Amino acid sequence: SACFLDSMATLGLAAYGYGIRYEYGIFNQKIRDGWQVEEADDWLRHGNPWEKARPEYMLPVHFYGRVEHSATGAKWIDTQVVLALPYDTPVPGYMNNTVNTMRLWSARAPNDFNLRDFNVGDYIQAVLDRNLAENISRVLYPNDNFFEGKELRLKQEYFVVAATLQDIIRRFKASKFGSTDTVRTVFDSFPDQVAIQLNDTHPAMAIPELMRIFVDIEKLPWDKAWDLTRRTFAYTNHTVLPEALERWPVDLVEKLLPRHLQIIYEINQRHLDHIATLFPNDVDRLRRMSLIEEGGTKRINMAHLCIVGSHAVNGVAKIHSEIVKTQVFEDFAELEPEKFQNKTNGITPRRWLLLCNPGLAELIAEKIGEDYVRDLSQLTKLHEFVEDDLFIREVAKVKQENKVKFALYLEKEYKVKINPSSMFDVHVKRIHEYKRQLMNCLHIITMYNRIRRDPAKLFVPRTVIIGGKAAPGYHMAKMIIKLINAVAQVVNNDPMVGSKLKVIFLENYRVSLAEKVIPATDLSEQISTAGTEASGTGNMKFMLNGALTIGTMDGANVEMAEEAGEENLFIFGMRVEDVTELDRNGYNAHLYYDRLPELKQAIDQIKSGFFSPKEPNLFNDVINMLFHHDRFKVFADYEAYVKCQEKVSELYLNSKAWTKMVIRNIAAAGKFSSDRTIKEYARDIWHVEPSDLKIPPPNEPREAAPDKTPNGTAA
């Protein structure tokens, strides 16, 4: 999102980022005795100089209540009101004097909260109860790729949606497009002037909310309102994991947003009527495509609502968009194939090269000029220098300087000493089974066993750095962190190993730490099971900063290999088709355990308590998962992964050949600029043209403004 805001401003788009101003963001992670411990992130404690509260734009948001139907239409009454106070943060474009706005909403209780009703006069309690309303923007839910149907979360989702839509409509009505100088409906031009991109299903309630505004408040006929709504919204899908898809219980929505439930039912009825005319007697198709899931507790499938209520649906990498079309939403894609698109993710080169790696950015500028910062495709010019010995040495030197700098940081902050001439093998991302930090862990144990088996044999020294947060309620992810730390404890204190192998768990991984570790990385680990990582963006950040990638054919790795040539990445393991076939035949972990002695040894060590002598059964849950319900098939890719890692070590011995491969990767990274991504959204979905006009700075006199507004949509 931050990259997209940077690119939209840099491309001169009139775009706003809307969200919630959480008082507490993602928790700070402490590692105590190898375990993750969460601490509140009180990020506003010292104030935030970049934000400006805008109380003049405060808006009411309604909850609960009931619906009254009459001749004039539906009325949502007896609601509880919470106020949404906007805070604006400026988003400057790169060197173009454009400044856009990120507007985040904070929840405030109205001043008569709990005092207006027949409250017998417990004034003190009424004022204390204001916290209940203001809790809406208190804390970010820390779940990653997991849906937890909590009422407070649904309140947060509707809160941001209701405030934002009122804001958008206020702005539309205040513009000349919203004036009623013709007999046409005020809102006829709404989709031509406004585009709303739904970032996953979390703001899906925007669809029934806009319908409620059009039908109940603005008194538009249903069909007109639905046409405008669909043309306004577009939906981006971010995950294919079933446990992550939002499915809200009908009774919860009915309690919190009774009118919205009625509108969703009406949308669904018309949707299913349409399908029934196209596919008569296909009741199973109706069941599959319904917005409402029956059986057990009735639930609303928010992804289905987003697809039906949008004019465009996209995934975030080619392979992911293909899976979205052919597997996850195949019925919908069969109905409206033209609705489904791909928009491969990107990253901003301003933050992820210039800001975090000034040495490399300057070196590139010396060779190809500075224009690449706004047009990253120009990095292809670096291909001319792949054989340039001086350039090769300079690229290697910048990497070495970054490694020394990071090693000093680690020493200062965490009191750990590492060898800056070792290969920095880095695996940083949120901890999740699908990302397979466990597979990396098994490789570490395998390297450790090889060193001990033959201490005299040449071994390419490695510092393995693993970092990331586990969702607080995700038991397996927390066990994985503990296992990595337990293995590190043994490896780092074994005198037979010495400086050949060091393992570090990087505490409290976050953007500011990513900006330090990524420029210092030699090897980027992108090893999710094929078909599970929608795109990934860390993979792109590492590529742009001169790391080589070891990875599966998943997410954007596929396109990185396509751009750089597969021979310039370390690609290994099952492809999506192989995973599908393994599922068909049944995945049997024992097969691999029995066939691969090094895998067996590593697993037996974990099982026997070699890494947890005081608690030999500590990792029973992990072992049990790996053998009996490993959805992500760690053992199936273990052998290919270890063999691929041997190739990595072999190349690392040849510094010049390694650096040439690095240069080829950087030269191929241009596609992964978020500028390219946003240009595609702008042209294919929002129907606006990016502008490279540099607005004159305030201190320069401007030309008299022409009397016409350029035609463009506010995204």
Plain-language structure description:
With 715 residues, the chain is of the alpha/beta class. Strands 19-18-17-20-21-22 form a 6-stranded parallel beta sheet, with helices on both faces. It is built from 28 helices and 22 strands. The chain is 44% helix and 15% strand. Helix 1 packs across helix 28 (674-686), helix 16 packs across helix 27 and helix 17 (437-453) crosses helix 26. Among the domains are: 186-343, 3-Layer(aba) Sandwich (Rossmann fold); 397-656, Glycogen Phosphorylase B (Rossmann fold, 3-Layer(aba) Sandwich), CATH 3.40.50.2000. Belongs to the glycogen phosphorylase family. Homodimer; enzymatically active. Interacts with PPP1R3B; recruits the phosphatase PP1 which dephosphorylates and inactivates PYGL/glycogen phosphorylase. It is an enzyme of class 2 (transferase). Residues 690-715 are annotated as: Disordered.
Q: Secondary-structure blueprint of this entry?
A:
Elements: H1 2-10, E1 16-20, E2 28-32, E3 35-39, E4 52-53, E5 59-63, E6 66-70, E7 73-77, E8 80-92, E9 99-108, H2 123-128, H3 130-134, H4 151-174, H5 190-193, E10 196-199, H6 206-217, H7 222-232, E11 233-236, E12 247-249, H8 250-256, H9 258-278, H10 283-289, E13 292-293, E14 299-301, H11 302-308, E15 313-315, H12 318-328, H13 330-335, E16 340-342, H14 349-355, H15 358-368, H16 389-414, E17 423-428, H17 437-453, E18 462-467, H18 475-492, E19 501-506, H19 511-517, E20 523-526, H20 538-544, E21 548-551, H21 557-564, E22 570-571, H22 576-585, H23 589-595, H24 597-608, H25 620-628, H26 634-652, H27 655-667, H28 674-686
Parallel strand pairs: 1-9, 10-11, 11-15, 15-16, 17-18, 17-20, 18-19, 20-21, 21-22
Antiparallel strand pairs: 2-3, 4-8, 5-8, 6-7, 8-9, 12-14, 13-14
Helix pairs in contact: 1-28, 6-7, 6-9, 8-9, 16-27, 17-18, 17-24, 17-26, 23-24
Catalytic activity: [(1->4)-alpha-D-glucosyl](n) + phosphate = [(1->4)-alpha-D-glucosyl](n-1) + alpha-D-glucose 1-phosphate
Pfam families: Phosphorylase
Subunit structure: Homodimer; enzymatically active. Interacts with PPP1R3B; recruits the phosphatase PP1 which dephosphorylates and inactivates PYGL/glycogen phosphorylase.
